[in-house]
Amino acid sequence: MKALTVTNLHASYGPNRVLCGVDLPDLTPGSLTAVIGPNAAGKTTLIRAIAGLQRATGTVRFGACDLLTASWADRAQHIAYMPQHLPDGLSLSVLETVIIPARSTTNPFAPADQALQDRALRILHKLGIEALALRPLHALSGGQRQMVALAQAMIRDPDILLLDEPTSALDPHHQLAVMRCVHDFTRAEQVIGVFVCHDLNLALTWADRVVALSDGRITASGPPDQVITPDLLADIYKVEGRIERCSHGRPMLIYDQAI
Ligand SMILES: Nc1ncnc2c1ncn2[C@@H]1O[C@H](COP(=O)(O)OP(=O)(O)OP(=O)(O)O)[C@@H](O)[C@H]1O
Ligand SMILES: [Mg+2]
């Protein structure tokens, strides 16, 4: 089984060191990992470095493929990345926006075949936004555009799916729909899923594993309920909080106050 391995990853912006020797546990196909941590901890830099969009030193491997030195084409075959901040102003339709990245590894100008269109529509359907297929992207709301960006990443049929705050603009219904979709997609397609999020209840509910990043260093990683603890909340987020079991037996996080 091919795993994603990240060891001793360093990244800087000019003189500012942002990732200081990050080691991740091996991430395996079919698993979903949440990356958590306070603002400016380095989460976006970490997943951009894994995606090859941020200069970094160390090791990022997928099986035998060295992703830090791989060509764009090789990386694009393995990785799909959804950014935290989405470009806007495109006058393409939603359907075109989703189909184009799926063709970019071959010939982006070739006419989309029916199978690809059908696949795009199936993904839009799974996300509950098939009614938007012919709408221009620039006329969508922020949450609608976030779901289109997720569809763009999923259609690439990646081995590794990197999502930077995929639910940050979504209402509760769409948060649940998106997390269900990402969870089922990683399982069914044996994808290595990684998502950054600030909603720790989503991480508790959906992730197989949580990695906590603070000041460019991993402070904890493991099963969600072992990583997201009152001590971690106080330590890296400076908040007092509790994890309690709800009436369905699921762990729920309650924040009491900022420290
Ligand atoms: N393009 C850039 N140029 C210079 N510094 C940057 C750049 N992007 C990020 N930084 C700095 O790097 C640090 C880490 O930023 P990063 O975006 O990785 O944080 P993050 O954990 O994703 O935060 P957030 O939760 O707010 O999205 C921050 O101090 C930030 O100011
Ligand atoms: Mg970020």
Write a brief structural summary.
The chain has 259 residues and is α/β, with parallel strands linked by helices. It contains 9 helices and 12 strands. Strand 9 (209-214) and strand 10 (217-222) form a beta hairpin.
Give short descriptive properties of this protein.
259 residues, 2 domains, alpha/beta, binds magnesium ion, 12 strands, single chain, six-stranded mixed β-sheet, Rossmann fold, four-stranded antiparallel β-sheet, 27% strand, binds adenosine-5'-triphosphate
Structure description:
The protein has nine helices and twelve strands. By secondary structure, it is α/β, with parallel strands linked by helices. The strands form three sheets. Strands 6-7-8-3-9-10 form a six-stranded mixed beta sheet, sandwiched between helices. The chain has two domains: 4-228, Rossmann fold, CATH 3.40.50.300; 229-259, no CATH class. The model has no long low-confidence stretch (mean pLDDT 92). Strand 1 and strand 2 (16-22) form a beta hairpin. The radius of gyration is 18 Å and the shape is globular. The chain binds adenosine-5'-triphosphate (ATP) and magnesium ion (MG). Magnesium ion is lined by residues 43-44, 84, 164.
Poorly predicted runs are none
Query: For the report, how would you describe the main beta sheet?
Result: 6 strands, mixed
The helix tally amounts to: 9
Main structural class: alpha/beta
Number of strands: 12
CATH architecture of the largest domain: 3-Layer(aba) Sandwich
Beta fraction:
25-35%
What's the Cα radius of gyration?
Answer: 18 Å
- What's the N-to-C terminus distance? 44 Å
